[in-house]
Amino acid sequence: MKRYHTYLFDFDYTLADSSKGIVICFRNVLERHRHTGISDEQIKRTIGKTLVDSFSILTGIGDEAILEEYRKEYVKEADRFMTANTRLFPETVSVLQALKEKGANIGIISTKYRYRIMELAKDTVPEGIIDLIVGGEDVKTAKPSPEGVFLALENLGTDKDTTLYIGDSIVDAETAQAAGMDFAGVLHGATTAEELEAYPHVAIMKDLTELL
User: Fold this and answer.
1) Percentages of the chain per state (helix, strand, coil), in multiples of 5
2) Which of 41, 58, 111, 204 could share a disulfide with 185, CB 3.0–4.6 Å?
3) pTM of the full predicted structure?
4) pLDDT at residue 123, rounded to an integer
């Protein structure tokens, strides 16, 4: 794999495993509203989508007002359970450090709220490694819209031709494609290699160490 000037990472299932916290939060909201028969795997398959889209997929509900109420309830649950139930993957910090030592820019592009990522990163990632976090509250259109990616490129003063986007899901592959930049998939999550290989990519990686 060639060397890039900038590396933009998805967060959930790319840099960190927050699936335990996500499942807890979704299940608390779903069960409160008597949505039963939804498996943990079904919940995990929605990771990377917006909360509204995830709840719509899981429940079949299309009413925007109901979905917005579910989203608000999820955020309250996440304030209690998310950070304590999120762990960086074993290689995350060492890979980010190695890329930074080579002079790369490091950014995170996520549908997760920026403050939630910062809450975890401040205690787990050495200061100065992450240059930029673009969270769900920073954009008008969520991934796979390239809005967050372009915002990151503008703020980092770099361009898409020297940037690699790394993610675990189809949403991430579509985001990179929409932005017109190189994509590398990582198999940390629920999306298979075959699913990711259907999209333009420079690599499908078992873990982040392959970036080095």
Assistant:
1) 50, 15, 35
2) 204
3) 0.91
4) 87
